[in-house]
Amino acid sequence: MHILLPYLAALGLLAVPTISASVTIPTYVYDYAPLVWLHSQDAYRPSDLQAQLDNTTPEVDWKPVQGAPSPLTLNNLDQLNNLGNTSVYLTSHEGIAANPQPAWLRGVTPDASGRAGNITACAIVVVDHGEGNIDAFYFYFYAYNKGDKVLGLEFGDHIGDWEHNMIRFANGTPQALWYSQHASGQAFTYGAVEKQGKRPLSYSGNGTHANYAIAGQHDHTIPGINLPVGFLLDYTDRGVLWDPTLNAWSYTYDPSTAVFTPSSPDVPAAWLDFNGIWGDDQPPGEPSIFGEAEFVAGPHGPKFKVLNRTLVCPSKPCIVLPFRIWAV
How far apart are CA 243 and CA 15, in angstroms? Predict the structure, then answer.
């Protein structure tokens, strides 16, 4: 019978299971992976990717997407691209302004080992530029972003929050790091950043989850500039230490084909191709002051974070600082 299998398959009379491609991630990508200090008072911890889908409905213009996969999973999320593409919002069942907030928005607090339960809240994406030059992105997911307060008013709350560090390697040796911060961020040499062993430390802003190289206050009124005092402040401290590698899936990304390949056949990759928004749209008629509102739209996912970078920064100018201070 086995001799006939190829012929039956060719005629469409036999279903032959396919084996997903997988890749090997260099061990140094994990050896040098950042550790994240979550703020001691932050109510919104790392969150599970599938839980985000379980608690939301894909919508376009505040109406459920007709023909959307059910149930929606990380293996079929990309199918929404044909049903609304970038206009699709993963809209929470309770609504962004729900009070009290549902428990799923608060994520999972890491334990003493640095693991946030059994959730998947991190995606490690490796981009090989050739000649030994590799960028490793460490994407962190939170179900909710709580914005900053200015003059007693809160701005920038949104459902779904993607932040990241990136490490640039040359022949397995870390050269520089990027810390995402709201609309911009900062870059440092590897030698400049604080470490635990050889793993860089990243300090996560209270509620906003913006990443900083040091603890303390951080003004981000002007994107890319980080001062200890100012008008719009983030706060970081050594609250709870999270090891994102313990809650991560790993992939490579080929810029020439825009294909993500997982490190294991059982790791879902389709969700990385989703073109929509990981949260609610900004509510209609949401009041704003100077163009800023309390509740705003959620973010796009990792594929929109300039994975094929020439510089350590996603845009110019790009200054790689050799020291840790509040600076451009």
Answer: 41
pLDDT 10s digits, 224-242? 677 777 667 899 999 999 9
- Tell me if 110 sits within 8 A of 119, measured CB to CB: no
Q: Which domain holds residue 232?
A: 21-321
Instruction: Kindly state whether residue 9 falls inside one of the protein's structural domains.
Output: no
Residue 284, domain member (yes or no): yes
- The C-alpha atoms of residue 230 and residue 63 are separated, in whole angstroms, by 41
Q: How far apart are CA 105 and CA 98, in angstroms?
A: 11
Query: In which residue are the tokens 């509620």 written?
Result: 207
For residue 157, tell me if it sits in a domain.
Answer: yes
> What's the average model confidence in pLDDT over 55-70?
97
Classify residue 12: in a domain, yes or no. no
DSSP-H helix ranges across the chain: 5-10, 27-31, 49-54
Average pLDDT for 26-43: 98
Does the pLDDT at position 2 exceed 90?
no
The amino acid sitting at 152 is G
The confidence band for 80, taking pLDDT boundaries of 50, 70 and 90, is: very high
Q: Read off the pTM.
A: 0.92
- Nearest-CA neighbor of 149 among 45, 38, 231, 204? 231
**Residue 262, Ramachandran bin (φ over 0: left; ψ between -120 and 50: alpha; else beta):** beta
Number of domains in the chain: 1
Q: Is the pLDDT of residue 223 over 50?
A: yes
Candidates 168, 164, 214; CA nearest to 194 is: 214
Length of the chain: 328
In angstroms, what CA-CA distances link 96 with 56, 136, 159, 242, 285? 11, 32, 7, 26, 14
Give me the DSSP letters along 14-49: S---------PPPHHHHHT--EEEE-TT-S--B--H
Q: Specify the residue for token string 């005092």.
A: 229
**Average pLDDT in the chain:** 90
